Amino acid sequence: MRIIAGEFKSRRLKSIPGLDTRPTPDRLRESLFSALQPELDGVVFADLYAGTGSVGLEALSRGASSVIFAERHAKAAKVLRENIASFGAETRTRVMLEPASRLAAHLDARIVFLDPPYGLSGEYEACLDALAEGFAELVLVQHETRHKLAERYGALERCRELKQGDNVVSFYRRTRSVAAPDEAP
Q1: For helices 26-40 and 54-61, what crossing angle results, to 10°?
Q2: pLDDT tens, 3-24?
Q3: Strands 66-70 and 44-48: what pairing?
Q4: Where are the domains of the chain?
Q5: Which CATH number fits the domain 40-174, given the four candidates 3.40.190.10, 3.40.50.300, 2.30.110.10, 3.40.50.150?
Q6: 32-60 residue pLDDT tens
Q7: Which residues, 6 or more positions from 103, have their beta carbon under 8 angstroms from its beta carbon?
Q8: Considering the entire predicted model, what is its pTM?
Q9: pLDDT surpassing 70 at residue 183
C-alpha cells in the first residue's frame, strides 16, 4: 500500500497482518480522491475505522489541513501511529481510540470517511445516524455492493456512488444545515 498523490506521493504504508482490517484498494482510493480533490484544500477530514490510515493520510497528502483518525483496536492503532510518525504528520493528526459510532456526532470534520470492518455491518447505520446529527458536510461510506444503505440518514442524502469491483463508496451530502452547539435553532 502506498500514498498515490500529493505531499507524500509514493510513500509506503505499514500494513496490519490478518483479515481484521480491510484496506481501501489503491485504485478505489485514486478514483475517490480524484472526485474529492476540489473539496480537500484546508479541510478537517475524519477517517473512521482508520486501520493503517491510508485514506486519512491520502487526504492529508492532497491538501486537508488535518485528519482525525478513529481506531479502537490496539494493533491497528499502533501501526497507524507508526505510519503517521514515518510521514512526520503528528502535528496535523489526532488518533482517537474510542468507537467511531460514539465519536461520530461530535466530530469537527467537514469530510468524513467511514469503512467499518467486515462483521460490523450494524456500525454503518449507527455511525450514519450519529453523523446526520453532527456537522459533517460530506460523508463517504465504503461498503460492499451487496450491503445496501438507505438513500437518506436524517440530514444526509446520498448524492453519488463510486463503484469498483465489489466495493462501493456512497457519497452523502448534508441537505440542511444543523445549528452549531452554541446557536439557537
Answers
A1: 40
A2: 999 999 999 999 887 655 567 7
A3: parallel
A4: 40-174
A5: 3.40.50.150
A6: 999 999 999 999 999 999 999 999 999 99
A7: 48, 70, 96
A8: 0.90
A9: no
